[in-house]
Structure formats: C-alpha cells, structure tokens
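pasting for the record
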Amino acid sequence: MSRQPFFLYLHGFLSSPLSKKALQTIEYCKQSGWDSQISVPEMTSGPAQTISELRTIIDERYDFEIKLIGSSLGGFYATFLSEEYDLPAVLINPAVRPFRSLKTLIGEHRNYYSDNIHIVTKEHMGELLQLEKSPLENPDNFWVLLQTGDETLDYRQAVRKYGEPNCLIRAKGSHSYDNFESELPAVFKFLLSSIGQSVR
C-alpha cells in the first residue's frame, strides 16, 4: 500500500504561516482532502536550529511521503532538506546564497506579520554557509518557480544553480510571486508525480 503524501511548506525570511502563498497552499490542500497532511511551521530561530526543528518534523512522519515547498529563504532550507533526504521540492523565487545576500541585514528586524523582532547575527551567516548544497546531487528533485521581476533576488542565480530545464520562468512579477495560486495545480502535480521518494 502506497504511503500518503505530507506537504511541508517553508516560508521566507520575516514571513510566516499567515503569508498569502502559505494560506493559498493550505486552502488547496483542504480542497484536495489533505487538510491534515500539511504543515507550515513558523520559523523564527537561527538557521541551524530551524533545520533541526524541520528534521524533527520529517523524521516524525516516516510513514508519509514528504513533499517540500519552499519560498525565498524557505527555498534554501528546502534545498538542503531535499538533498539530505532525497525528497521532491518546489521552490518559489528561492534564495540561492543567503549567507551573502543577508549579510547586509545583520541586526534586528520586525516580522511582517507578527511584529516579533528577529535578530540576524554573523553566526547565522556561518550556519547558512554550512547548509549550502552545491553542486546538487539530485537536481531532478526540484521544480523552481521564478519571476524575472523579483525585486529582491536575481532569478538568474537560481537558473544557474538548478538548471533551466528544472525552472519555470515567468516574465515580470515580483519576489512574492504574483498569481501563485494559478500555479498550485502544477505544483502539486509535480510533487505527486515523484515515485519512490522516501525518508531515510
């Protein structure tokens, strides 16, 4: 008997489970009968602690087929976990080298949704560097949604890392990924088409 899917959505820097894309993904799961098979954890810790918490979520669901969705910094985390566990992952405007792009953001930041304060440290940059997976061992595990109008990240970095055949590139748009809801059927089709993926 095949195992049921379990979807793990990883939000971006200073975002939350209340982000528009996260809520749209949750609603899609509800409409598809998977309302109890999705988790959107609030990630407020540093990179090393966040990965430890995400590993626990995955390891506790050994009887499910884990599917990853990651946005921005969450896409970076999803890349690490996908490579570590050999899992399918859909990435949305992912951060490719956050240990470089976030260097200018060391200090205190207010969460866009909760007003909680997040502190970014130099140590966090080192932790992010330790999580980099390059080159990828399993590039076909990834489908990457990119918009050329991303005002935060250069989409071409993701094309170089994941390979153009594994990317869907939309003209214009934004870092938030405009019209994400319209991509959800294809997102879940990709995640569910993977065969033989297992948590080791």
